[in-house]
Amino acid sequence: MKIGKGLEIEYFIADSAGNITCFVLTSINREWYQQVGKIIMEILEPSVEQVAYVLEDGMEMSGHEFCGNASRAYGLWLARKEGQKGEGEVMVRVSGANQPLKVVVNTKTDYTRITMPLPMKLEKMDWSNMGLGGQITKVELEGIHHFVCIGVPCSEEAMSLILEKAKGDSVAPALGVLFFDPSTMSMIPVVHVRGVDTVYLEGSCGSGTTAVAAMLAEGKSEKQGEWCYHIGQPAGEIGVTVTKKEGQVHGIEIWGPVSIQEKKKGSIYL
Length: 270
Fold this sequence. Notes:
- The strands form 2 sheets. Strands 1, 2, 3, 4, 5, 6, 7, 14, 15, 16 and 17 form an 11-stranded mixed β-sheet that branches.
- This protein folds into 2 domains: 7-114 and 258-268, Diaminopimelate Epimerase, Chain A, domain 1 (Roll); 121-256, Diaminopimelate Epimerase, Chain A, domain 1 (Roll).
- A hairpin with a 2-residue loop joins strand 1 (7-16) and strand 2.
- The protein is globular and about 50 Å long.
- 43% of the residues are buried.
- The two termini are 14 Å apart.
- It has 4 helices and 17 strands.
- It is an alpha+beta fold.
- The protein has helices spanning 33-44, 68-81, 156-169, 206-218, and strands spanning 7-16, 19-24, 50-54, 59-61, 87-92, 101-106, 111-115, 121-125, 135-141, 144-150, 174-181, 186-193, 198-201, 225-233, 236-245, 248-260, 264-268.
């Protein structure tokens, strides 16, 4: 499909713990994802933090990154579309994940729980020469690499320094800088998506919550167990359950309600 001036699109907006996503239902060629996404975020719906495209067999983010919050919102929308009533589950194909993911939903209460991809690698970074103090741990997930910062004061200067360092360290489609405070179990997530060249202080971050949970479980002396956390974020809270077996992180689920608005139509101009 060739996009011309004044293209009308159909879309809906979903709120997952304050992480606002615009889901485009109109078919858009992948080569136009970035440009259309920018126009939506800057002009059509400036309240949204990210844009996703609904396909016949799945969902893709603007920068082809992975997003846990968008994935569970898509799961709830798909369950409703399929006519599910009350509790059920769907398998979703989403960008940044090599395998379909299971989303448990309740179409009456808007509850969602998604089984997240497991981290591929955790690594403590030796970036002491940056003068930031604290500890930074890189958690590599499919489609996004997060840098969890503990004891590093959240500031624009620190965020910029860490993000620039991260860009040289990782080639993932998206990068997250997470300022995490273990004493309050809260974090401030900043996400950079390479494909659309955006940097957002997000209302919440599902994959970032996963990264924090994996790091916490990795630091446990127990070889096996299950831990449940509620991670506070700027615009909401995400629940996460992490299990460990034989000394390794074995499973991670994030959960909570999702709000989906009615479909809309709007025009964008390229």
